[in-house]
Amino acid sequence: MKRALSEIARQPATCVAVLLIAAVVLAAIAAPWLAPFSPDAQPFDGLSLEGAPLPPGPKYWLGTDTLGRDLLSRLLYGARTSLVIGLVANGVAVLIGMTLGVVAGYVSGVVGNALMRFTDLMMAFPALLLAIVLAALLRPSLWIVALVIALVNWVQVARIIYTETRGLVERDYILAERSLGAGHMRILFRHIAPHLLPSAIVWGTLGVATTVLLEATLSFLGVGVQPPQPSWGNIIYESQSYFQAAPWLVFIPGAIILATALSFNLVGDALRDLLDPTQRGRG
Amino acid sequence: MTGPILAVRGLSVDARTPEGLRPVLEDVSFTLRSGETLCLAGESGSGKSLTALSVMRLLSLSLKPRSGSIRLAERELTTLSERAMRRVRGGEIAMIFQEPMTSLNPVLTVGAQIAEAIRTHDGADSRGARARALAMLEAVHITEPARRMGQYPHELSGGMRQRVMIAMALSCRPKVLIADEPTTALDVTVQAQILKLMRELRADLGAAILLITHDMGVVAEMADRVAVMKSGRVVEQGSTLDIFERPREAYTRQLLEAVPRLGAFAGTDSPPRVTSAPPTAPSRDPVLFVHDLTVTYGRAARGFGRGEVSAPAVKGVSFELRAGRTLGLVGESGSGKSTTGKAVLGLIPFTGEVVIDGVSIAGLSSAEMRPVRRKAQMIFQDPYASLDPRMSVGAAVAEPLTIHGVGPAAERRERVAMLLKRVHLSPDHASRYPHEFSGGQRQRICIARALALEPRVIVSDESVSALDVSVRGQVLELLLEVQEEMGLAFLVISHDMAVIERMSHDVAVMRGGEFVEYGTRRQVFENPTQEYTKALMRAVPVPIPRRGTSDLRPVLLRT
Amino acid sequence: MAALLGRRLIQAAAVLLGVAIITFLLLHYLPADPAALVAGRSANAQMIANVRHQLGLDLPLPLQFWRYLTGLVRGDLGRSYIQRSEVATLVMARIPATLVLMACGVFVEVALGLTFGVIAALRRNGIVDRIVMMFAFVGVSSPQFVVALLLLYVFAAHLGWFPMSGFGTPAHVVLPALTLGLLGAGWYARMVRSAMIDVLNQDYVRTARAKGLSRTRVVLRHALPNALLPIVAMIGIDIGQFMGGVVVVEAVYGWPGIGQLAWQAIQQADVPIIMGVTLVSSLAIVLANLLADLVAPLLDPRIRVR
Amino acid sequence: RADDRSSQGGTIVVTYQDDMATLDPAIGYDWQNWSMINSLFSRLVDYKFGTTEIVPSLADSWTISPDGLVYTFKLNPKAKFTNGRKVTAADIKYSIERSVNPKTQGPAGGFFHSIVGQDKMADGSATTISGIEAPDDSTLKFTLSQPDATFLNVLALNFASVVPKEVVEAEGADFGKKPVGSGAFKLEEWVPGQRLVFSRNVDYFRDRPNLDGFKVEIGQEPLVAILRLQKGEVDIAGDGIPPAKYLEIKNSPDAKDLIVDREQFETSYITINTTKKPLDDVRVRKAINMAVNKDRIVRIINGRATPANQVLPPLMPGYDKAYKGYAFDVEGAKKLMDEAGLKDGFSTTLYAMNTDPNPRIAQAIQQDLAAIGIKAEIKALAQPEVIAAGGNKDQAALTWSGGMGWIADFPDPSDFYGPILGCGGAIAGGWNWSWFCDKSFEDRATKADAMSKPEQKDERYKIWAQIFTDIQSQQAPWAPVFNERRVVAKSKRMGGSDAVYIDPTRVIDYEAIYTKK
Ligand SMILES: Nc1ncnc2c1ncn2[C@@H]1O[C@H](COP(=O)(O)OP(=O)(O)OP(=O)(O)O)[C@@H](O)[C@H]1O
Ligand SMILES: Nc1ncnc2c1ncn2[C@@H]1O[C@H](COP(=O)(O)OP(=O)(O)OP(=O)(O)O)[C@@H](O)[C@H]1O
Ligand SMILES: [Mg+2]
Ligand SMILES: [Mg+2]
Q1: ipTM strictly over 0.95?
Q2: What global pTM score does this model have?
Q3: In what order do the strands lie in the sheet with B20-32?
């Protein structure tokens, strides 16, 4: 642990990233206290007389959206939704992908094959459709959208992990483990899974931004968070066509999503190096 | 003779490490005359390869030359422009690498790779280049050269690949040929051929050879002069005869002693004892009994259910092994040694009968296998590959205990400490990771792991061939030691006759998946019945300098 | 080889059937009543019932599916509820455009991905590497709609280098392909980079350099082909991920492809079209993967079936 | 304006986002194809451009029997289909029957309900409509089951367009893709997903249209369409100006040349499901009416509408100027909620279409309702799903009609009653999403429609006005929010009065618009 901290301390970029993530998490938790306005309040003076959103100013620091709501407050509250999506949903997706990929790669033969075919099917399957139907059948909620995203995003990961696993199982030390009488579970989780961590981290962090944006598409189709509940994704989505008339509505949330995702990416890389003992004392 | 073709003076190289620059080469100097062979000898990690790479200016970025001069004829290479240097590489100085398996590009045909070299340097057109490539393949006595041109590396045997490497290296008639352990990865028989080939070619082309090896046998066979390296320095330099007959440095002597001499133990039935432990009374019933073992790969669905049924890798092998005794399994690469080893431990599907300590393991479920596994363990060829790089050494050694739920964590920790001591490592190494150890140490770790469960049988697959001579001796000692103290039965797999001779009571010679000869060590070594066995023994390089260049031994078996 | 191909084809068919079944079920639960939509605003119960019968929506579900399948075999995808013309023709009319777009998109993606991936790998951990990876990341994480509009404003509306929308001339495809490619390029750059770093540490690269080859030749002829192996498999997977992007890009640039058709059909609950588009895109994805599997051996002699 | 002189000829470019549904007059029933179908085909009677005044078209003249039950038309002999054949009375009979025929799967059937025998045709028990007779090629006679003041309007609908039987039978279901009519234009080319090209019908029997033709480009994102329009690549952006671009255009110097902004027969409203607790309580419905802050909603859509206080739009005959509806009065609303015993409110759902600006408006409404303790969960879905929800008695409680707002098929108040407030529409899959069905009003409605004599016109309108006013003031099944004005963006070179770009009945008068000299 101490090592971890010192390692991170050595890379300023990573420090910044960690701080930024901390800030975002804090914002999500403390939104009610930090937000200058209620995220849903549509004050009459939130729009110009013509009904145009207000640019950043003394009263509304980051400006208002097309309903005259305070952008800052919405971003603060939106962090809650988007963190759940970007971390939980995305995380679950990676988890499913890894598990299936690893198993499919480890148990060659019928089972592995079947699993890969299933992956193919999921890959060929129109996810949006599933989303729409779910939207209509279930009461839309953050967790539904998380579910859908997880269902959609694991496929690629599974594919990648699968190929990697196939490479690993040929390795000598796996054979050594078997000669020691290690069970499959042990080999899978103690000796193969750890080696997949790097790719898992890479895909996980790359997924943060994409899922946050995907969530917006889904909300538009009626799945998941419904208005007025804010999420970074749908803040952009709602007003993406305004990017000329009201650039702040697109570029501020965009920048925040990007920054957050980038931070996770940086931390992820740092983490990867930390968790990899073979990196120790290497240049 | 004229002045030296290659002269290295005061070459020093630093390695960039997180802790800063660490010298890896210190003031290395030597000269090389055309037509002569200089051997760089020395243990692993002594800086041999780095020296070679420095000459080629191919050091990886993490390495930084500090000082020194490298002159090729009149030209100073260290200050040469990259373009000019490119003309030198392959054109005037060519290099052969240690690993023929990985040194050729898997997606290009052999022909293309050789022709490429020719075109870059002699600006020949593609047809001309291919013609000369073919000629080179003929020159290195490869079978069916025309066909090889169109083949890919993976379709060739190790020996062939090394021949291709040589053909490629010599294709532009370089003035200097640097060969970095050209034969270490090869069988004795193949090694003999490659060495012969190099001698011939040197004679034909009059190229100077800088040969890197840690095998004094090879040195004796090839070198005119020798430079002995140790931890980045040349400690001794001189004519081969002087080095062998009047070594000045203790280190040099140590190297020479470490070299196993075939026939050193002639006239004894069992390997000389290394401990004072009372000899275990040879029990009647075998710890390992194998009858009519046959293994065929490719049955089980591999990859996407692909996998053509191949010819059996092991056919009808039978033998038995009693406590405290060792069976040596020798044979050329691909003869089925490892397969046999894996099969008797039930690591791969097989047919026939295998009985370990009274239990027949044929068709046991992995659950039923567990108890048996405690009795039989394996030590692999490549210690690094057979250790999980992400697992601390302590955990690795404790692994078998954990798997078989032996004792509480605390007790295990003690066992691990004890085991590490047992293999002459210090217990506080437990928290380190494999990549932080030397080859020899890694192999010790593997041995400790194998011993953890106090097995009755140990299969050791090429356990020492990856180590260099000095270390090799120690590991062998260790194995014998534990055998005598614990009354273990060993199945020792090696293609190195010397190792087999040193270790075993009985010897089986394998070829094409079958035992061609099987008997006590004495029988097999002192009057081999099979021509093949004789060939194997003859092929072992003898660490006695050869005078003149005429070839004493007939070279057998073309690859 | 043939055997392998045969098996994969069968698997592909199975996958498609699976997709068909699931999609059909989902669409059945789509909370919109086609009959009512078709019958229009001023219809009475009687008329709606008539239409429902006409459309065969009053049959039991399995029978409906069976009908659909049998139609499918005859290459008949049914008729659109809204457009009233044959789905097959509608979809076919759209396929070329989308194929062009995708081909160009993949090209951009791979071209950019390779170039920058290789550059990053050669300069690894250097400033160039950092910057390239940074941009790769931005590419991956930007909302495509905005990217599309930005490109359109800058290069079409203001600079007028390219037409703003439509289809036909090469000039038309540039911006859409670019938009579509930029996103994926990020992924590729990343993967190519790591693959390249791997390969560059291989012995045979050292051998190539020892031969005295120029750096570019070493990279292009020896390193790259080996680094490509894992990428090819990715391209197969990618087509699936593309679909989403295609919808957005086609909408913004008025590109007459499947994506627009699909999106509109979804917005109008035009079940037969959704069905058809789904099947076609699934087919595309399956074929793409199949192709990847078949191309891999060409690139890598080691996995050629002998 | 000086330069605004009609120049004969010229072709223009029109853009839409969605693909053209169909050009079959018996089926086509949406914003996009309505005006094109209208220009491809001709009907017995038509409207004077930009007005609601009925004028002869295929019919040179007609007579109405005193009892208002028999209409007899004399056809224009010059009328020809674009395939060269003369238009006969039989064609018209066939065409209307086709519209009613269930096999056509068209939306039109209901409009012809007053013709004798329509019902039999509609339920498939008859193959012809007995109430339509063509004694000779140039005479057509309709017999009605009861007097119908709007009958001529019905005959002016696209659904009454004349189609050539032989072509229809040849093309079958693809007639909508290869239409043949007798209108001002004919379809030259249709590239699915890309464009439709229309050209002037050279032997059109009425005076030739100004344009030589027009090209409809589809799949055009509205934002981009506007950009292209500004660059002069596009002449009419059919989808109007997206909210994101509206203010920019409106405040640009050449706005007056680019924007046509005109009232239409439209009302956007919130339907309140009168069968769902607690909305079955009229006090709650009134409270909702009072709670909605219409001014703010209008501001949200940049003032592109005028707050509405009643069902009928101001243009519509029968609009009750005296009636002021429910004023915005949160306190009053709260009081009503108290009386209804809902002091601490209730929660419900509000359905809305998912295209901008409707989700935003829905959120504004949501906020307003919250102010009186009604917690409305928003379901923003695609149009078909909203329609399905609304047309399902126990699903949608509140529905925001925006984007699907009711636009009259013809300028008569009755059109705002039948399908959306009458019992006829209160069926599964129907459009009466308030599920408001009140016998007394039904009777008053039928009575009103029976007054078909021209001289009864004004009286009839008065009665209708009373009906709607009473519905709102007594039952309040709707919360009317605003009457949206239609905004069309056209290039500077386009000429013609605003009325022909936003025609009350045709949307765009392709026959009347022209390019300036
Ligand atoms: N790229 C590198 N970065 C840092 N140190 C290195 C690097 N390559 C080699 N070394 C160190 O330099 C020393 C000499 O390495 P070298 O490969 O020359 O040994 P060698 O004599 O060739 O051994 P072997 O017989 O195993 O090939 C070793 O201690 C090694 O750890
Ligand atoms: N996993 C495998 N799948 C298919 N064939 C294999 C496999 N492993 C080995 N073989 C084949 O079985 C034969 C025996 O291989 P084996 O590894 O036992 O030889 P070996 O004597 O151990 O050689 P070496 O001395 O190089 O280790 C060889 O022809 C080899 O190609
Ligand atoms: Mg070396
Ligand atoms: Mg072996």
Answers
A1: no
A2: 0.83
A3: B20-32, B6-17, B63-72, B75-76
